[in-house]
Every structure is written in C-alpha cells, then in structure tokens.
C-alpha cells in the first residue's frame, strides 16, 4: 500500500492507476513494497473478555 501511495505522490501513477491496482486486490498490480526500515511499533492493546 505504501509503495503504491509513493508512486502516486511521485507522479509515477495517476489516481486512476492507483484505483485500478487497489480494486484489483492483486499484489502484482501494485507498486513494489516500501522498505521496512523506519517502521515503528508503538502500542499493543489486548481486550480481555470474561465470558463467565
């Protein structure tokens, strides 16, 4: 997703190209994935449900 948004922002894709790739639900239609460096895990919330 981020790689496709990057292509859109850089002008490599038109909005119609992005919409076509996104609606196809095929990874082969998307831009290459963005590199993982710089990603940050900030928080994890766990919901505990008591069914008793």
From TrEMBL:
InterPro entries: PsdUridine_synth_cat_dom_sf, PsdUridine_synth_TruA_C. GO terms for biological process: pseudouridine synthesis; RNA processing. GO terms for molecular function: catalytic activity, acting on RNA; pseudouridine synthase activity; RNA binding. This is Uncharacterized protein.
């Amino acid at each position: 997703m981020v790689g496709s948004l990057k292509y859109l922002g850089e002008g490599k894709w038109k909005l119609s190209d992005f919409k076509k790739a996104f609606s196809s639900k095929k990874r082969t239609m998307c831009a290459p994935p963005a590199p993982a460096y710089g990603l940050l895990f900030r928080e994890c919330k766990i919901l505990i449900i008591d069914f008793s």
